[in-house]
Amino acid sequence: MFGSKKDIVGIDIGASAVKLVQLHESKSGFQLLRLDREPLPPEAVVDSSIMDSSAVVMAIRDLMLRNNIKSSDVATSVSGHSVIIRKISLALMTEDELESSIQWEAEQYIPFEMSEVFLDYYILGPDPNDQGQMEVILVAAKKDFVDEYIATFKESGLNPVLVDVDCFAIENIYCSVYEDETANIVALVDMGASGIQVNVIKNNVSVFTREIQLGGNSYNEELQKRFGIDSESAESLKLGLDSLSIDSETVQEALQGVTDNLVQEVRRSLDFFSATFADERVEKVYVTGGVSLTPNVLTSLAEGLDTAVEILDPFSRMAVSEKDFDLDFVKSVAPFFSVAAGLATRKLGDKL
Ligand SMILES: Nc1ncnc2c1ncn2[C@@H]1O[C@H](COP(=O)(O)OP(=O)(O)OP(=O)(O)O)[C@@H](O)[C@H]1O
Ligand SMILES: [Mg+2]
């Protein structure tokens, strides 16, 4: 049963770690087979770009080996400045017509040469503001950037069959797990080491995305500056693994200052969404990513956004065997795995 050849393994290369999820789909839904992560050295992935591919290759190989995964088909995802997501409005046309004109249409919206990007799109439906138009989500990712990812997987002896975008992988898992969500407009907020990705979805379709350049590393930078320590010590201090003989109240105060900035930036994004979407309001916020484990971050977000805030648990509706996993452990690390879990639900032949 484990590692059937048809499974696609989800591998998320984050700034702080490589994360792997393997699922098995049966009639009754998904079952968790594997979840694991391997930390990366600090400069291995910077601004989502792979700087030290041998460190990443080593992490991927370690994960595949120690989880005894035989399948070599993997799905991965990218994010950052080299990925542009735009919602555009075009004259109504058939899919074939769009397919043949998309390059030309996209040129006006994408700040890169068309020859330098991989382009994909998704038709949302008729434009509610203009009957003769339709809304399309356009995704462009720089080829050299994506090629780095593909090369890294090939070097690891794997076959990257699908390259998604982080926030769409999260959207994917959210839509499959929270099918009975009653709020129409929700924001999915991924708080990672290098940044925060906000994706507002309306009736399960992405309508607004934003990237914020603050994340887990911002806490470390603040502690480094404030206490004159290196980044490794800052990480231990932040996680409460080592007090470094610094008064804990002073540390908490420094961390809360960063949380406040972060909340303010998320609020700005959601205000901007409301301003551009006829005052529509986000009704609920689902957070994920390691930074969502920061003490007090959920309550600060709920207060600052004046909205219900909940942790997105990608495994909450999946079968997780008590024989193979400690369920409390899975719950406690779930925020790290939303992207990888979203990737692992994909099937061979899926499009971006
Ligand atoms: N208990 C915790 N409290 C606070 N922060 C935490 C905790 N555990 C992990 N983090 C932070 O979460 C971040 C890692 O989260 P995550 O794995 O989602 O990021 P990533 O995917 O590697 O980064 P990115 O998405 O930006 O590429 C690190 O900055 C780490 O310090
Ligand atoms: Mg991440």
Unreliable sequence segments? 1-5
Radius of gyration: 20 Å
Assign the CATH topology of the largest domain: Nucleotidyltransferase, domain 5
Mean pLDDT: 93
For the terminal residues, how far apart are their CA atoms? 28 Å
The run of helices and strands is EEEEEHEEHEEHEHEEEHHHEHEHH
What's the domain count?
A: 3
Task: Give the number of helices.
Answer: 10
| Structural class assignment | alpha/beta
Shape: globular
Q: Can you walk me through this structure?
A:
With 352 residues, the chain is of the alpha/beta class. The protein folds into three domains: 1-81 and 144-178 and 313-352, Nucleotidyltransferase, domain 5; 83-141, Dna Ligase, domain 1, CATH 3.30.1490.300; 181-311, ATPase, nucleotide binding domain (Nucleotidyltransferase, domain 5, 2-Layer Sandwich). It is built from ten helices and 15 strands. The strands form four sheets. Strands 3-2-1-6-10 form a five-stranded mixed sheet. Strands 13-12-11-14-15 form a five-stranded mixed sheet, with helices on both faces. A hairpin with a 2-residue loop joins β8 and β9. α7 (248-276) packs parallel to α8. The longest helix has 29 residues, at 248-276. It is globular, with a radius of gyration of 20 Å. The model is unreliable at 1-5 (pLDDT under 50). Adenosine-5'-triphosphate is lined by residues 14-17, 192-195, 215-217, 235, 238-239, 289-291, 293-294, 336.
